[in-house]
Amino acid sequence: MEELKPALYIVPTPIGNMEDITFRAVRILREAQIICAEDTRHSRPLLEQLGITAPVLESFHDHNEMEKAARIRDWIQEGKSVALISDAGTPLISDPGYHLVVACVNAGVQVVPLPGPCAVITALEAAGFPTDRFCFEGFLPVKEKALYDRLEELRHETRTIVFYETPRRMPDTAVALGKVFGEREIVVGREMTKAFETFYRTTCCKLSDVLASDSNSDRGEMVAVLYPWRPDPGENGVSDAALKLLRLLVTDLPVKKAVRIVSETFGCSRNEIYREALALKEEPDIG
Ligand code: SAM
Predict the structure, then answer these.
(1) Separation of 210 CA from ligand 1 center, angstroms?
(2) Residues with Cβ within 6 A of ligand 1?
């Protein structure tokens, strides 16, 4: 058997279903001289199941990542092959590994990424929302103000939005999503790839009720996928919502200012809005 060449191998592991590991991932884990794991106690049963009984297993987690990254890079430079795994899914995706990869890249140490299970992609596969463009928000902020600020920032995001959430925080997040996104469609994937895999398909304003109606919704892991913002163009490419705001503003503001606010808010053509504003001004109760 050819020896694994010295490098950092990033190895995804299952997010629930133990069959979701590639042949290549198993081979790399068998052949690596050192396996760095987020939680060695958590990973040992998986490794044993794969027939990997006596690797050098090193702990590598959020709290020792900075300090350990340099040491691991040095081991590779001394000729060792090192595999990095996290508790589940793809390392670095809301998991440790970023600083280690930076340390290796900066030192010219080879980084070998393996494709594999990742909850972001798994949820996108099932959501039924546009997948040509999407963004990943990781975990949303915990503090209420920061959470609302982040959701406001995302209000006009035109890509599908994916984020992670814990069952404990989901009730508060669901309330916030309802307030900010209203009728926008959302899919929450819970316990994906596991026996009790569930997808809640609803709108943001109904999400709290939908989750509350399932007594199991406070258990297991969750990913949310939010439909992208669409300007909802009516005739002339101007949505009803934009017209509604314009109607309110032109009564009190100079036309130019009202047009600027509406076109910036809805991301629609200034010329179209201007034409609509002039038409509104012709109406007796406005002009
Ligand atoms: N690195 C992992 C990945 O590739 O998906 C993510 C690690 S992050 C610490 C853990 C979060 O991922 C969970 O809180 C949940 O939001 C999501 N997650 C992981 N496994 C999941 C599953 N089987 N079903 C739903 N969400 C999951």
Answers:
(1) 21
(2) 15-16, 86, 88-90, 93-95, 118-120, 164-166, 189-194, 221-223
199 Cβ contact list (under 8 Å, min separation 6)? 126, 127, 187, 188, 189, 190
Q: How far is the CA of 40 from the centre of ligand 1 (A)?
A: 18
The predicted model gives 186-215 an average pLDDT of 97
3-state secondary structure of 132: coil
Q: How confident is residue 238, by pLDDT bands cut at 50, 70 and 90?
A: confident
Q: Is 237 left (phi over 0), alpha (psi -120 to 50) or beta?
A: left
Distance CA 208, CA 202 (A): 10
Hey, which of 13, 15, 187, 225 would you mutate to test ligand 1's pocket, going by the most ligand atoms within 8 Å of its Cβ?
A: 15
Task: Write down the residue that tokens 């982040």 correspond to.
Answer: 150
Q: Which two tokens stand for residue 94?
A: 């809301």
Encode pLDDT of 64-105 as tens digits.
999 999 999 999 999 999 999 999 999 999 999 999 999 999
Among 165, 173, 222, which is best to mutate for testing ligand 1, by the most ligand atoms less than 8 A from CB? 222
- Shortest CA distance to 46 belongs to which of 23, 24, 18, 22? 18
Smallest CA-to-CA distance from 184 within 125, 145, 241 is with 241
